[in-house]
Amino acid sequence: MKALARQLFKTFLFAAIISIAANCIYYSVTQKGVDYDKALPKIIEGIVLLNIIVFVMSLPSLFLVNLAYWNNLAVRLILYFSGSIVFLITSLLLHLPPQSKVVYLLTGGIFLAVHAVFYYLWVKKRA
Predict the structure, then answer these.
(1) Dihedral angle at the C-alpha atoms of 30, 33, 37, 43, nearest 10 degrees?
(2) Could you tell me if 11 and 115 are in contact, meaning their C-beta atoms sit under 8 angstroms apart?
(3) What is the pLDDT of residues 39-63, one digit of tens each?
(4) 43, 27 in Cβ contact below 8 A?
(5) Are 123 and 12 a contacting pair, CB within 8 Å?
(6) pTM of the predicted model over 0.85
């Protein structure tokens, strides 16, 4: 369980860093001429909060320490990826301004991609 929890925490850290960079780039491209010094702390705070939400939604993956769950591929994929996929679906269904929707989808997509990379490495290591 310790290794899986550590992996999930690494996913959170890498996804947060990449999401902050990607959303800062998105902000600088879409908001030309706006004071970036005042916006940067708000962007970082918002992206970290969104990543915490996706992280909490991904906690069911910790149930994979049970070998019965790990050996069943369907259950393994559902438990591992359901949090970030539900976050993306919810982001699509919420009535948000287009700029906010892009930030939510970008953050959720990056978390899902980083989570998938760590899943691949975990499966490769256990095989």
Answers:
(1) -10
(2) yes
(3) 889 999 999 999 999 999 999 999 9
(4) yes
(5) no
(6) yes
